[in-house]
Amino acid sequence: MIHSMTGFGKAITELPNRKITVEIKSLNSKQLDLSTRIPAIYREKEMEIRSEIAKRLERGKVDFSIFIENIGRDACTQLNMPVIEGYYQQIKEASETLKIALPTDWFQTLLRLPESMKTDTMELEDNEGDVLMQTIDKAIGQLEEFRQQEGVMLQKLFTQKIDNIASLLKEVEPYEQERVEKIKVRIHEALSKIENFDYDKNRFEQEMIFYIEKLDINEEKHRLDNHLKYFIETMASGKGQGKKLGFISQEMGREINTLGSKANHAELQKIVVRMKDELEQIKEQVLNVM
C-alpha cells in the first residue's frame, strides 16, 4: 500500500504547570526538507527530535512546531524585553528595506511573535523530556495515519487511470489493419497520378513491407502493457515507492509518445491523446507519493 507525503498531526499534553502542543505537517518534496520551531527550553532535545522525525517520515517538506503555555498558579508571565526589542528593530529594518508600512498596532504584532513572553517557571519539570517525546510520537503517529489514508485515495485514483489506459490500448487493435490498408491505397493512388511512370513491382512490395514494419506498433503496445502491470505491482509492494512509480510513468509516456508518432491514423491519434490525458493525471499525483 502506497502512502502520501501530505499529512497533518497534532497532540496536546498537560503537565501541572505547562501545556505542550505539538503540530507537524508535511507536503511533497524529493527529499526530507525539515524546518522546526522549538522553544528554547527544549533546545537540548532538538537533535533527538530531528532524528525521530527523519526516521519516521523519510521524505517530504515537513514543518514541525512545539508550543508551550504555562498554566500553573505560580507562573508569573513577563514581557521578554530583549526578544521584543530585537523583533522591533528587525521589523523597522525590514520596513525600510522592503518599502512596507510599519504595523499600526505594535504591541499586538510584537506580543504574538515567538518567545515574546516569558515566565518564572521556564524550567524543565521532572520527566518533562520523556513527556515531550511521547507527545511528539502521538503527533507523528497522527500524520502517518493521515498519510496512509491519503495513500489509499491515491492508489484508487492510480488504479482507475491505469485501467483507463489499458482499455484505450485495447481500442487500438481494430484500427491497426485498417491503417495498413489505407497506407497502401494512399501510396498506390499517389503513384497512379504520375504520368508515364513505371516501377518494379517486386521492389515496390519490398519497400512497402519495410515502410509498414517501421510503422508497426506491436512492440510499443507490449511494452506499455508491461509498464501498466508493473505500476500496479509496485503500488502493492508497500510504501516508499514514489520515485519508482515516477520512473515507470516516464517509461509509459515514452511508449505512448511513440505510438502517437507511428499512428498515421486519425482515430489512433485521438486514442493516444486520451492516453496522454490519463497519464498526465498520474504524473501530477505521483509526486505526492512516498
From TrEMBL:
According to the entry, every stretch annotated as the Endoribonuclease YicC-like C-terminal domain falls at 174-289
What protein does this entry describe? Uncharacterized protein (TIGR00255 family)
NCBIfam families documented for this protein: YicC/YloC family endoribonuclease
Family membership, please give it: Belongs to the YicC/YloC family.
Arranged from A to Z, the UniProt key words for this protein are: Endonuclease, Hydrolase, Nuclease
Q: Which InterPro entries match?
A: YicC-like_C, YicC-like_N, YicC/YloC-like
A single MF term (Gene Ontology): RNA endonuclease activity
Endoribonuclease YicC-like N-terminal domain location is: 2-155
Q: Which cofactor does it need?
A: a divalent metal cation
